[in-house]
Amino acid sequence: MDFNAMNNFNAGQGFEEIQKLNQQNADAAMKLMGEWSKGFQAIAAEMNDYTRRSFEESTATMEKLMSVKSLDQAFEIQSSYAKRAYDDYMHQMTKVGGMYANLAKDAAKPMEKAFQFNN
Q1: pTM over 0.85
Q2: Residues near 43 by Cβ (< 8 Å), separated by ≥ 6?
Q3: pLDDT tens-digit profile of 12-27?
């Protein structure tokens, strides 16, 4: 047993190190929550905007359909709307998927720093 090492041990210093580590972990968790909050707010705003645009587009299409004179004209309007709606949906889901990926990367950064060990 090394009594010199025991004599040099400072309990207060060990406690301070634990407090420092706990504070760093708490800070990392708060940053993580902040990143998630900002990311989810941006995604919600984007989906809200998409929903509004989609509703406006469908309303305009319905108005056009109400004024058609022939079945061929109605079919053309509906086909055009279906294609635009599908393309817009796929574009939106790609955009939101990218936003979720960025959210995950940004949210992980504070945790990566918290788990890095000093060499």
Answers
A1: no
A2: 96, 99, 100, 103
A3: 677 788 888 788 878 8
